[in-house]
User: Fold this.
Amino acid sequence: MPTWLAQLHAQLDKHDQLGAATRDVLDDYTRLFSQTLYLAKSNADMLAQRSSASAQRRVSAAKDTSRPTSAASQQQPRPPIASALSDTTDTPTSHQHPRPWWQETPQPTHRDQLVAEKERVDADLNKTLHQVKQLQSQLAQSERSVRKLSSEVNHLKSTIRDLQIKLHDATHLLTTKDTVIMIAQDELTAAQIELSTKEDKLAFSKRKTATCWIAGSHTRPTRPCA
Assistant:
């Protein structure tokens, strides 16, 4: 395998690993999101239960407080106006009887803690959602890069297959040409041998003819040797 093709495969493997890791992170954040929703619902249910229980306790306390006060007012005679004014001036009525439940000062300490916890959970959830969106964007970008690299790899594989076919055809053509060249060389060698033989015969014939002319020049100079 060529070096550049191996590098492309390594990049694809790296993107696959990044995609798998990103999906694992998304699964973790999805699980955290579900747990956060469950915690928020549990907090809301607990707040509702505590509010209902507190209201019931206040109603019960108000009923218990109003019953002995009304009975005492029926048993005791009404004081004179002056004494009543002096009593109200000296000692306020608010100190003699407890406040009704609707005038009590609320103590939302635990509720404030729950609200603060819910706000913290909401902030963590928003941060988590932001991170999830960023990871989704990175995952989409990685998938686009993987698709682009896959397309390039497929194109390069197709080019390699075409080049391999051309190389095979060229090799076959070269083999055929080598065979043709070898045959031509054999024919050329045979022709050269035949030419050399004929040249030798021609030279021999010329020498024989010249010898005959020299031998018979005094009798018949125009007749060549047989």
Remarks:
- Residues 80-96 have pLDDT under 50 and may be disordered.
- The first helix runs from residue 3 to 75.
- Helices lie at 3-75, 81-90, 93-96, 109-215.
